[in-house]
C-alpha cells in the first residue's frame, strides 16, 4: 500500500538534512555488524561444544513426542549457534516432526524488529521519537494530549489494546484480522486509558501504529522494509512478516490447545496485520537476530543507547522496557527478554549481552511455558560460568503437559444451583467439607480440582475460567449430576435484578450486549459470542467469566438508576457501554 509522507515543517526538514549525512556512516557500521554475524560453514563446528549438554536439554522436553505438539530451541554464544534442536510435532494431522528449520509464528517477538526499524529511521533523520504520531497518522483521533512515537515504543501511550477491543466488539481471534480493520477501529476510539506517559500498559495497538508510520515514512511496505534492512543483511532467509493470511509457508508449524477433555485441538490463526505480531521465523534465524542485538548492545553507538535504554514515565520512574524488550537480570547479569503468545504459539528470547549469550525457545501449544524453559536451558549452558560448583539435576525443570492446579483455598465458598439451593465448601485440613441442605460430606482429593467420597460415589469437579479462577462445580453421585456456579456476592448485599437487565451499546465499538436474568444467573448475550455469566460481587461491580469481560462496573445517575456499565480488562480500562431504553435510544443522563 502506497501512502504520501505527511509534510514536515522547516525545522524538521533541516534536521533531516543533517542526519542524512550521519546516516551514511552509521548504516555502514550496521552492515559491518551484520557481516560479522553471517553464518558460515566454519561456524558449524562450534555446535559440537553444545552436544555435551544434549542429554540434559532432552530431559526438559521428555514429554514432547510425535503424538504431541512440541517446541524448538537454539543457544547462541559469541555469534555462533552452539546448540539447536526440535521436539514434538509440527502438524498432528500428518505427523510432521519439529526440527530447527520449522517455521513458527513468533508473535510479540516481532516488536523488537519493529522498534529497530523505527530507530533506524530516526537515525537516518527521517523521523524523531518525540514527534506527534498524528503528524504521520492523521486518522488517529485527537485525544487532547500528544502521543509521541516514543510513547508507542514504550507502551506508555494510553491507547487501548487492539486485541481486547476486537474481542469485546465481537471478533473471534481466529477470524481474519487485517491491518486496515485494526486501523478503522483505532479511528473510532473515544478515550485513552490514561494520559500519555503517566503509566505503563502493554499495548499491541502502539506497535501496529509504528508499522504504519514505517510504511509511510519509508515509502515501502512494512514487510519489504524489514526484509531489506534486517532479514537480508543478517541472512535470516527463513524470516518474514506475514501480512497476507493466505500466503503458503513451507515448513510451517501449526498450533494447538487442550480442550476440556484433554484432547488436542487446532488453534487457528488468521492474522494479516504486522508490527505488533506476525513475524514468521525459525529458532536459528531468531538466534542470529539475538546475537546481533548482543553485538550492538556492547557498542557505544546511537543505536545501542536508544535500543537498550529503559523508557520513563512522566514521574521519572523507569519502566524497565525498551524497544520491544523487558530489562531485567539473569543471576547477576543485565538481561533482555521478551515473550510471545498468539493462538497456540508460544515464544521466548533471553539475551545476556555481557556474555554474548542468548536462548530462543519456540512452541506450538497453548500450555507450553517457553519463559521457564528458556531459563532452565540457560541454567544448563551457563552453569560453569555462573555457578561452577553446582551440578544440575537432569530431572529438574522437566516440563509436564498436565496442569499444576491451585491451592485448596480457591475452592472454598458458596455455590448456587439453577434450582436456587446452594452448596457450601469449606476446608477440612487437606480435604474438603461440603454442606448441602442438611447433609455434610467429607471429600478427599482424587485429582487436580476433583474431590470425592468412594463410599457413596459422590464426586465434585471444580470448574475454572480463562484466568484460572474457580467459577463453579459439577456435583455428581450415583443418581444425578448437577451444575452450580460460585457465588461472589458479599453477604448482606441485595440486588434489584430487573434494573440490570436490558440492552447496552458501545458507540466506540459499534456493538451491543444484552443482560438477562436466567436460571438464577445474570447472563450476557452478543450476536457473535456464546452467552456467558456475569457474577455480582456487590451492587455495582460484577465479574464476567469470558476473558475479555473480566471486570464490569455499572454506572448510575443521581437517582441511582443504572445508565450503563464500564468494562476493564488488561489493556482496556473503563470502556463505556450505555443502556438503551425501550425504543433503543441511549438513556439520557441528567446533569
What's the structural blueprint in terms of helices and strands?
Blueprint: H1 10-36, H2 54-60, E1 71-77, E2 80-87, E3 89-91, E4 96-97, E5 104-105, H3 110-123, H4 149-154, H5 162-168, E6 177-178, H6 179-187, H7 204-218, H8 222-231, E7 240-241, E8 256-258, E9 264-266, E10 271-272, E11 279-281, H9 283-297, H10 302-307, E12 326-330, E13 333-342, E14 345-352, E15 357-363, H11 370-381, H12 383-386, E16 413-417, E17 422-428, E18 431-436, E19 439-447, E20 450-453, E21 458-464, E22 470-476, E23 481-487, H13 497-500, E24 502-506, E25 511-518, E26 521-525, E27 532-536, E28 541-544, E29 551-556, E30 562-569, E31 572-579
Parallel strand pairs: 6-10
Antiparallel strand pairs: 1-2, 1-15, 3-4, 5-11, 7-11, 8-9, 12-13, 13-14, 14-15, 16-17, 16-23, 17-18, 18-19, 19-20, 20-21, 21-22, 22-23, 24-25, 24-31, 25-26, 26-27, 27-28, 28-29, 29-30, 30-31
Helix pairs in contact: 3-7
